[in-house]
Amino acid sequence: MQTIMKWINEKLAPPLYKVTSSRGISSIMSGFQKYMPVLLVGAVFQILDNVLPYISSSLSGVFTIPTNLTFGFFAIMLTYTIAHSLAQQLQINPITSGLFAISVFLVLQRPTFSEEGNFVLNLNRFGAQGIFVAIVAALITTEVLGLFEKKKWILRSEGLPDFVRDWFAPLIPGFIIVMAAWFVAYQLNFDLQASLATVIAPLLNTSDTFLGFMVTALVMNVLFLVGINPAVTFGLFFPLWFAAIGENAALYAQGMQPVHINMLHTFAAFIVLGGTGATFTLNLLMLGSKSKTMKALGRTTLVPSIMNINEPLIFGLPIAFNPMLGIPFFINGALINPILVYLAMMTTNLVNKPINPALIPWIPSVIQGFILTQDFKAIVLILVEYVINIVVWYPFFKAHEKRMLDKEKAEA
Amino acid sequence: MNILLVCAGGISTSFFVQNIRQEYERQKIEGIVMAKSITEVPEIIDRIDIIFIAPQAIFFKEKVEKFCSQRSIPCHVIDSATYGQMNGKKIIELAKESLEKGG
Predict the structure, then answer these.
(1) For residue range A198-242, what is the model confidence (pLDDT) as tens digits?
(2) A300 contacts in chain B (CB < 8 Å)
(3) Distance between CA B49 and CA B75 in Å, rounded?
(4) What is the pTM for the complete model shown?
């Protein structure tokens, strides 16, 4: 155990943090976060669009347009927010970078113009399917602008007011980058989105297999158990997860079965019940504990647990570096919940797969599960998980409680 | 006294921040208490007197220390027990102690 911990601390964690805190990955992460307010509004419209037809069939499709123009415009907005975040890190003008990135994104998506002057571009190129083009456009554009600024390959306008400088400084790199995008997209006839899709699609399909799903759950739990918050890797995986939920949402809107399950949304609502390791039911057990320490801690950590945040519990009880509680943490979080969810959503199709893009890990699981799938059976699934989780926790909880009681007696 | 708590996402520490703020009111201490993710540290560090790092974010210690040493701001990792109990009083004591020692 000691050797493993040492290896993780010295060999695994530093490079992992280096990659995830690199400016590219961290600006993808922060770009997603900046887009979240619009995403949530889109999610509300999507729920209305799906629920209202049950009330009256005349309300069918009423909110399709606002849904499409918020969540459906995912990629183009993300282009702006990612470029904005990266520019902040490079300390260049974030708005200029964001605007150039939008131009580059649009050019790379190869719209056509009809004779009547209509701008023709399939909606899916603006949305979740265009995420990867958005990332490429945002990162390359901003890096080029940053490079020119750093090397001072910019038009000088000394003695002129600052705002004039801001206008002319990006003239050369801005021209080059839009020109290059145009050349690639229209002269070389290169379709970036289609090319990237040939790489992404197999990735998504593999991650949706039983093995792929279990490995994801395993990695998340192991990272957490050794003290690395999986959140640090989210920048790497956000694009894949949102591509998956985007495809599910689009399929559902067309009346077809969603296909993807392996995404943060699923984990947040159905697996991380109370936090990684499914500690919500453990927290409930603590409330009734005979140990004063555990009972008091259980009260302090209850509200965070309801909101699926268990770091206080992990370090307070503690579960971290405590093999006895690590075992049920692992059985529940990495085995039981993922298996149940896979059986319910993938194998038997009993519960609808996630279709709503809202990523809201910090609201109670049952509410999250319902919003995500818009299926009441999702709530039943979570309740079943709770029951099994509490049974698994119980003997280990009792053993830990005994140890704590002995300690309390010795101290008294 | 302006305290910043840092964790990976700034989420779990935000509960702790609420406890510290309550303690601030009780003790009538002036200042801001914030929870932020590691990436946001450079944006706000100039308004901060002392930084505490959550135990799960210990890997970021070096990075935070780099920012801190440039501005001679003290920075400490919160011990697991204090963090688990979200003991706001303890953090305030630690902060006062550390700042007095430095000043």
Answers:
(1) 999 999 999 999 999 999 999 888 877 766 777 767 778 889 999
(2) 84-86
(3) 9
(4) 0.85
